[in-house]
Amino acid sequence: MLPWNTEDLLFDETRFNGTVRLFPLPDLVMFPNVMQPLHIYEPRYREMLNEALDSDGLIAMSVLAPGWEADYEGRPPLLPHACLGKIITHERTDNGEYNLLLLGVRRVLIDEELPPEQSFRKANVTLLDDCFETEADEHRAGLQIALTRRFQENLPDCQSANPPILELLSAEIPLSVLTDLVSFALPLEYQLKCELLGETDIDRRAWMLLDALEEKRAVNPKRTPKSLAGYLPPFSVN
Predict the structure, then answer these.
(1) How many Å apart are CA 192 and CA 141, to the nearest integer?
(2) How many domains does the structure of the chain reveal?
(3) 112 has which bridge partners?
(4) Residue 26 and residue 123 in one domain
(5) Would you call 12 exposed, middle or buried from its count of C-beta atoms within 10 A (0-12, 13-18, 19+)?
(6) Which range of residues forms the domain containing residue 45?
(7) pTM for the whole structure
(8) Could you report the per-residue pLDDT of 141-191, keeping only the tens digit for each?
């Protein structure tokens, strides 16, 4: 049995007040529709997590802009887009640190960072909706098939034979979900991942991924993708 239920995976945007706690990292680009295990050990982020657990359970995974090393302990600049995440499970260790599982729920645009009142950072954000630039695209079904195939080709043998992944790839999941899974799981260039996080047009994301996978296939087919074990929420295929 999974340690969460379906209600744990839901995000009610009508109850979202537009303010988020920021958890900025330099080397992780989080996406909606995937789960990310995190280990929280810095005191400021333990304070952040305690507040989240006492309220809405939400944390925004933001991305540190280049040059962050000079001011990591302060408030280094952030890239404009982030992924709003919901805490699904958490465990407090004996030394006060935390292990948690975070589910990405929405893309957000950071509008304004708030003045510092706590040890961690907060910002006002706008929820970004996925969209299709055109309502009906005769090539969309083929686009999804092509991206699914390229995704499977880029998985190592141990992952491509994994039952949850086989079930996922054989199910008719939305193209929006597929693009986020591919963006998260494969070892794409960091800048491209940031661009994919900021792109709300689903067709455009799919084409960006296909172009990148074609290039990657030709240049360096041996790169190892991120393991998906434990990172996939239980999607419904209904």
Answers:
(1) 24
(2) 2
(3) 124
(4) yes
(5) exposed
(6) 6-128
(7) 0.85
(8) 889 999 998 988 887 654 544 566 666 666 678 999 999 999 999 999 999
